[in-house]
Amino acid sequence: MTSQSREMELRRTEWAVLVILVVLSRLVRVHAVSYRVRPESLAVREGQTATLRCAFLGLTSQSVVFWEGPPNFAVISTGREVDPRYPRHRIIGDPERGEYHLEIKDVNIREEGGYRCSTLGLTEKAEVTLNVVVPMKKPPEIKGRDVTFTAGQPMTLTCVATEGNPLPRLRWFNATKLLQQTNQNAMAEVVPSVSLDLVIPEVARWDHGKNVTCVADQGYPDLTTNMAASTILNVHYPPIVRSRRQTLRVSEGETLDLSCDVDSNPQAAVSWRKVDGDIPGNAEIRGNELRLPKLSRTAAGGYRCLANNGILPSGEGSVTLIVLYPPSITSGFEDKTSALAGGEGFSLRCEAEGYPKPRVRWRRKGTKLYFDNPLEFTQIDYDMEGDYECVASNGQIRNAVRHTFVDVIGKPYINTVSLKVSVRSGDTARLVCEILSDPLPEETRWLRRGPGQQDKPVTASQRPGIRQEERSSASGVTNTLVISHVGRSDGGVYVCETTNTFGTFQREFHMDVKATNTQAVVIASVTVIVLLILFATIFICIAKRTGLTERVRREKASTSDLTLPRALPPLPSYMVPVGSDLGDGLEMQDFKGTLKPRPPPRTDLEPYSIGLSYPSLMHPLPPYSTVERQRPDGEDNMLDSPYLEDPWETEGFVMPPSVPPKHCADKGINAITQC
């Protein structure tokens, strides 16, 4: 039986069932029926068991439940009976609860489609879909992955998936960045497939090495896993040259490696050349590096690195090499230079080379005094003669130094500072004439200037005791005129005259002879001695008048009482109390809370006898307080006198006037001193 005849037979059966249902519906009273479990669409992986759930409310014993399915909603089951054409199908569930679940074992792609669970009396039939998922067996394919692209040109990659049910959705990623996911094309061929293009209108060098991935997703993460295919872009681009440093500074004698960083695909060939000359003969090229051993100053200049890989334009980089080297003096001045004394505009220039450009200065040898370059003197004299050094420095390890001797030549010059000499009569006079001269003086003589500016030579024949002393030095000679036993007639003006090949020079010396006065010295000495004696006398009087001497003596006595462990002397007879061991008549007084003996009545004794003999019993009195002072009524006022207290212990004490009492005024100087 052919498939066409079988299909026609199936349709006849379906029509017969429908007729029977119509007849039954007219004969049987229909009750209201509804879904207790409404069927839902289901996705299941191929080979697994699919269960489509369906349950009703309001079914009767005459109710019949139908399951219809692919193809074209063919009747699969009536009630709990399944058509024999579906051997892997069955109805499960509790009939008493109205459950008519359809179970399909070992599901394949043919069972995918629409299903319907229904019965008579339903106003709406629920239609659901069974999706049978067939996982992909291999990842998608990328077409064009082996193509090499050139920078600046367009690039297209195609991702194709030909397996799986449903066909996957394709997406392009660069790492985790989504590049493209639209424009997916499904191709209706013998084998269904889907494709997605990745298009870059103009590829660039930074696209080289990118990892792009095509991801295929079937949309059922619980049933299948995504599959992906990746490729790394291969983009050809011209070389890009980068120099690590534009300028290099290296000291002379060192070894330098010049490097050239080249970015290109494919790899570029690198060459080197010098901009302003030839590369040093000892240079070595090592790939992208140029080694320059033992640099010399001639290696300085610009260097260019050229890179070529067949893709235009070629790459080029440059670096400037600066070779540092210490200074050297290039001037050709002589070791000895002559200058004319008294001349003007002397100049000496020093030239030097080095890198950095050296600073050139002059200095006097053995000093730290520097002069600018050129060395210039506006007025030349013999003080400028000496060794000079040209010093060139540029911050390197050593400086360049070159010496020259400035030789000042010309007529002599007398450099004596002291031109006035003062000497006492009878002493020896020395007139020193310091002569700077190159060449040395041929003749030096002394002249004495007389009236009318007439100069006469001074010679030893004029009088005994005249002579000349001469000694040579590095810069000239020193000629000294010595005159012994100088008299008043030897005073006046003397002239030192010196001559050499270039001319003659003179300098005046003034000698003043002073007389010796012995009497004046004696008078001055006596005057000094008298003044010293007078000052000493005045000082002693002032000390006694102010009590300074007495206070010093009392302090010494008090210190002696405190420090020496000796017994006190006996009291005078008038101070011994009557009827006691000490005697009678000793009167005590209260002085600031302390009992002290009252002073005895005035006698002819020395007023300080008590204080000197008994310093611990009597408060010391100042010198001017020994005079009795009378009250107006004639009573003794001595105990009430404020002068009885020690002025150094009495708060707010004021010194009395230094005027002696009346009873001391007629006793003479000694009495006044004692008062």
TrEMBL record:
Signal peptide (from-to): none
Transmembrane domains' residue ranges: 520-543
Region of interest (Disordered), ranges: 447-474
Membrane-topology annotation of the record: Single-pass type I membrane protein
Gene3D superfamilies, sorted: Immunoglobulins
GO molecular function terms listed in the Swiss-Prot or TrEMBL record: cell adhesion molecule binding
Cross-referenced InterPro entries: CD80_C2-set, Cell_adhesion_signaling, Ig-like_dom, Ig-like_dom_sf, Ig-like_fold, Ig_sub, Ig_sub2
One Gene Ontology cellular component: plasma membrane
Keywords, ordered alphabetically: Disulfide bond, Glycoprotein, Immunoglobulin domain, Membrane, Transmembrane, Transmembrane helix
A single BP term in Gene Ontology: cell-cell adhesion
A matching Pfam family: C2-set_2
Compartment(s): Membrane
SMART domains linked: IG, IGc2
Domain annotation Ig-like: ranges: 25-129, 140-230, 238-320, 327-406, 412-512
Protein name: Hemicentin-1-like
